[in-house]
Amino acid sequence: MKQLVVSVVVCVVVHCVAAIRYHNETRPSPVYRQLSEFLHEHPKPIGVFTRQTGDPMDIRDTVTMNTNILDNKNFFIETSNLVRERIPERIVHAKGYGAFGYFEVTHDVSQYTKADVFNGIGKKTPLVGRFSTAIENLGGSDLLRETRALALKMYTKEGNLDFLSLHVPIFLYNEPLDFIRFVHAMKRNPRTNLFDNAMRWDFFNLKPQFLHTILWLLSDFGLPAGYRRMDVFPIHVYEIYNKHGERYFVKFNFRTTLGLSNLTNAQAAALNLESPDSFNIDLYNAIAEKKYPSWRLEMDILTKEDLKKVDYDPFDLTRLWKRGTYRTVTIGRIVFNANVDNAFKDIEQLALSPDNLVPGILGPHDEVFKSRRISYPDAQNYRLGGNHLNIQVNAPLYDKTYNRDGMPPVRGNMKYAPNYYPNSFHGPMPYVDEARPTEMLKILHSNAIDLQPLNEFYNEIVDTDAHRQRIADNLAETMINLPAGLLKRSIYVLTLIDIGLGRRVRNALQVLKHVDQEARRNQIAECIANVNEASMRPRNKLQKTYLLPYSHGRN
Fold this sequence. Notes:
Elements: H1 2-24, H2 34-41, H3 73-82, E1 96-105, E2 124-133, E3 148-156, E4 159-166, H4 177-186, H5 197-206, H6 211-217, E5 238-241, E6 247-256, H7 265-274, H8 278-288, E7 294-303, H9 304-309, E8 327-339, H10 343-348, E9 361-362, H11 367-384, H12 452-461, H13 465-479, H14 484-497, H15 499-513, H16 517-534, H17 539-542
Antiparallel strand pairs: 1-2, 1-8, 2-3, 3-4, 5-6, 5-9, 6-7, 7-8
Helix pairs in contact: 4-5, 5-14, 6-12, 7-16, 13-15, 14-15
């Protein structure tokens, strides 16, 4: 009996060890299992291979060897499709990935807005979102210090509502034409075809308001540890109104529920060696493993009377609202719970515009928004065609319009309804929003360059000298090869922002100039190797979390 018990115990132990061994076996993450999972879901071919016209493909027509190539109908069709399967890449935010999800109302905000999507606790609205980097090309890296974005399209009952958000709480400029010049300065040198810091610093010196965003990007807040761990901000001040016609001016904020986390330069370099697509991989895997990323939607609120009392321009996109001048309320949350079936169909063709708004949310009043409501549809007409809003991922839940015909897709093309307005034959008719405010707001903008917000960021939001030194070191890295005259001017502008900042950058440059570059590269390589070794341990021990000290969302 005793021997039998021992045998049973041994068997149980062996079984447990085998189970543990199986559990610990390295298994590819979901992003690398996609094809295997498709095979598992479809143990047999999903159908007969056909031409685009639907006629079945004979196996002899899948090759051209030892045949008359001109008789192979399939050869021309496949070749012509190949050379046309790419569309123009976005000028900015070219690289990105997205997912589907929903918005859920969690708080009553009916006193502020009549927007149906934001009213009714528990109400869920389907949405699609696209995460992206701003400057990198389509095949670039996720892990460089630059602006990141989350662009959302909510399919509401009152039309599509789009929010185009950045991961820093301020915008680059107030003058619409500066966008064109900024993009050219940030893109590649027309002769060398390389990103050129001399171009960038020359532009920043002449347009110092851009340096506020640059300071954010070169700070510890600038490089998030993946798309799931960053807050995002739609930037503009929106005018909203309730069913009584009462107006409020708000900034929307999306706060990650995972908590903010950022990477150091060394961590980013190590992850970049593993894969420049690390952020996309992280997002895909999290959703596939049902660790659904989510963000809390809040809004900072000013009344019309508040606008008269504040001692700053609340419509200035390049600065934060001052603490204590506004109140914050929570609206709901967004959750991404489904990866896309086809990235080109659902993400590359996704067309978003900040002008896609719904009743209860009026367009912002700043000049940048006015320019974007023109430039975004124009860019999408170029990339996707005049009927891009008929593409499935862009189509609203309901639309009745007098726009029709043109290049596909045309969907139902409004069938046989009248194609002109006004008409007497019961074509679509407009409605009257009786709550919509009739009074127009007039804003006078200043052209003066104000460096005070930059100084406040460096001295108040950045709360340690060690952090300030890291900003200076990152600035110096971008300035090491500048021409002497441009370097002098750049340090002068930084000194105008803060004397200490200028001094730190000057000292950091002196250190870099006296460091043997080969030895410095070896040190960086050693540092990356150490980080790679550390990355084999649990990730939460590798990442350092920085919580933003500013209260741009909550007082």
